[in-house]
Specification:
Structural class: mainly beta
Number of helices: 2
Low-confidence stretches: 5-18
Helix content: under 10%
Mean pLDDT: 88
Oligomer: single chain
Shape: elongated
Strand order of the largest sheet: 12-13-14-15-16-17-18-19-20-21-22-23
Distance between the termini: 69 Å
CATH topology of the largest domain: Lipocalin
Number of strands: 23
């Protein structure tokens, strides 16, 4: 009886071992478990690792270059350099990876020809992600941020300064949608009555479409309210084209140009003036946008746009924005922002330059595309 039980247990263990995957390294070490996938090394993106899930140590990443041979009990998906994917249990013979496919029988390939390895579960996830990238829904791939800045004084002075900025981005390999807004509000109640000392709100939408790896086209609408320029609304609708001078994992630098139609509606200045002012003009625009990751924690974003007026030659607008953000947590950063909005033709008695320097917390969601 005991002998029968022993034989039964031994056969079960042999069955489990037969179904398990085994990876042999060039130094002779063996790892038994389940081959999951190949991936980039966490601390060195230039190197590839093979992830093996084990019962005793969880997921073990081993350098792909150190792998001598592979034996899999379950089918693996091997993606090759020529674009083919071969599927089946894998063994290694004479430095060749032999795949027992169900369609064409045994197929041999060299290790150097393999660019990715995935088990059935990882391949399904990869296919779903690839399909979503090619056929994204409008609700897919959004990420965003909220920047806050607050300063309050009480006692001999009584002031409040508040800034809020938000941005949401939906980006795929083909296009990009950006929605953004900024609000600035400040009051001074040191000497009653309370006075509003700053009040401006800006927001807009921009869409970019890549027509090639380097060239893109874009369209946008931008709106601004500024109480202290007596500006009830500046609405700008425009578009153009641009070029990706730099586009890699850590840095993008774009230049762009185009044109727009601008509408401005001003309240009377001074308030006792008999009429408001409306201006509708055409502009051309030239600009650049720079985004870079300085290290694992700090990013810098900067954009500058110049708007010469073609309806009233000599008039122009200029906008500059720069933000540096340093991560405190995965979803939390500390940011400092500087912006400058300048118009050459403000209403009589008003200044054309509005500067903002703000610092505070940044909350983020999604995989950032900024």
């Amino acid at each position: 009886m005991r002998r029968s039980v022993f034989i039964f247990v031994a056969l079960c263990l042999l069955g489990v071992s037969a179904r398990a995957d085994q990876v042999v390294l060039k130094n002779g070490d063996r790892i038994t478990g389940t081959i999951v996938k190949t991936d980039v090394k966490a601390d060195d993106k230039t190197k590839t690792v093979l992830v093996v899930k084990t019962d005793f140590a969880g997921d073990i990443p081993v350098l792909w270059d150190s792998v001598a041979s592979v034996v899999s009990g379950e089918p693996l998906h091997l993606q090759l350099k020529d674009g083919q994917t071969i599927v089946g249990p894998v063994t290694t013979t004479n430095d060749k990876f032999d795949v027992a496919t169900t369609t064409t029988g045994e197929v041999a390939t060299s290790k150097d020809a393999i660019v990715a390895v995935r088990n059935d579960k990882e391949q399904k996830t990869y296919d779903e992600t690839a399909y979503r990238l090619q056929h994204p829904r409008l609700t897919d791939f959004w990420s965003g941020l909220f920047d806050t800045g607050l300063s309050v004084t009480r006692g001999n002075s009584s002031t409040l300064n508040f800034t809020l900025a938000g941005k949401a981005v939906r980006q795929t390999d083909r296009d990009k949608i950006s929605v953004y807004t900024t609000a600035v509000y400040a009051t001074d109640n040191t000497t009653p009555p309370s006075r509003t000392t700053a009040h401006a709100i800006q927001g807009g939408i921009r869409g970019d479409l890549n027509v090639s790896d380097k060239f893109f086209v874009f369209g946008f609408t931008d709106n601004l309210y500024d109480e202290f320029q007596h500006l009830d609304l500046r609405n700008v609708i425009g578009g153009g084209g641009g070029y990706h001078l730099i586009k890699n994992e850590n840095t993008t630098f774009d230049v762009f140009a185009g044109g727009d139609f601008e509408q401005e509606y001003f309240s009377p200045n001074p308030p006792t003036a008999p009429t408001s002012v409306t201006r509708k003009t055409g502009e051309v625009l030239f600009g650049e946008e720079y985004d870079t990751k300085l290290n694992g924690r700090t990013t810098v974003t900067e954009t500058a746009t110049f708007y010469p007026n073609v309806s009233n030659t000599g008039d122009y607008r200029f906008q500059f924005n720069a933000t540096s953000a340093t991560k405190l947590k995965s979803f939390l950063s500390w940011q400092i922002t500087f912006s400058d909005i300048y118009i050459s033709n403000p209403l009589p008695g008003l200044k054309g330059n509005d500067l903002l320097l703000s610092t505070g917390l940044r909350l983020t969601f999604g995989k950032q595309k900024f």
